[in-house]
Amino acid sequence: MSSPSRQKLERDLIFMARTMRTRQNVEQLLGPERHTNITDRDYNRALAFLPGPHRHYNTIGTVVGAVSGYSLRHRSWGAARLGGVVFFSALTGRAVGSAYAVFSFYRFLNGLENPDGFARALENVQHRLEQPGAIPAPQQSQDDSFSTPVYPETASSSPSSPAAPPAAPTSAWDRIRAANAQQTQQSSWDALRQSHERSRVPRPPQDGSSDNRFYDSDRAAEQAKFDELLEKERNFGK
Known about the structure:
The chain has nine helices and no strands. The chain has a domain at 3-137. By secondary structure, the chain is an all-alpha fold. Residues 134-219 are annotated as: Disordered.
């Protein structure tokens, strides 16, 4: 492997680790470079290695280190000492896992059939990624039986806009007409209220023997007074 290509690939280790995390990403990014800069053997190796388990070596090392440190505990240790041992063991395991991941990358680079072409392919991928919209984001395929139906929007489904409030009168005539209308409305309400109050006034009962007797006696007295006045008029005319 030539020195410039080796240095270029070593600088692109972080780029490959960040961008080619899944098999679909590798196919999308390195697929256009196949048969031009990347051979079939290098493409298949990249497709198998870049999304591989080496990406989780640091996490695996952290867990293994923490478990190993906890297994070394003694009964005489306090909580602080036990926590320190577990933390140091987890940190050591993470460092070992990261180092082993880097070693796996170097082993992958050393096994390339055409490292110069692979370096040119990575450079082309970086140029394409710098152009906005050049490489669309991968879309997840969905089963047709579980896809959510999309219904077209209709005019009836759109929310109706609230009615605009009536404009306030601006001219003097408008203010006068508004005042007259208000007075007319108030007078109508007053008439209705007065008629309602009149209807609520209790009327004298139509039946009842005591009330009828008083009413008949008053009527007889009035009739007697009237007859007496008529008699006086007749006598006065004679």
